[in-house]
Amino acid sequence: MDCIFCKIINGEIPCTKVYEDENVLAFKDINPVAPVHILIIPKTHVESAYMVDTTSNILNKIFEAIKIIANEQGLQENGFRIVTNIGESAGQTVKHLHFHLLGGRDFNWPPG
Q1: What is the pLDDT of residues 48-72, one digit of tens each?
Q2: Structural domains of the chain, with CATH
Q3: Out of 33, 43, 69, 86, which residue is the most buried by the measure of CB atoms under 10 Å away?
């Protein structure tokens, strides 16, 4: 498979890990848009949130990891943003389910 995130999971491409368990990997985004910008991905390849099997437990595992990471990063006090994009028009550039955990600054709505 030619998925960059699968290659990161397999250790073929380095990353700055901030969290890992048997289901989830989280690492710093190489092009951060906030002081804290972490990508959280499942270790199983799923193209997007739209493609998640509703009988799967992967979203629970991802959100458990997000809570741990947000606490470790000190984001729980002032808040943070979680974003996932589905499809090219929404800005999904890697076809592997991932969530952006953003924090450490104020955000506006709607985003640009």
Answers
A1: 999 999 888 999 999 999 999 999 9
A2: 4-103 (3.30.428.10)
A3: 69
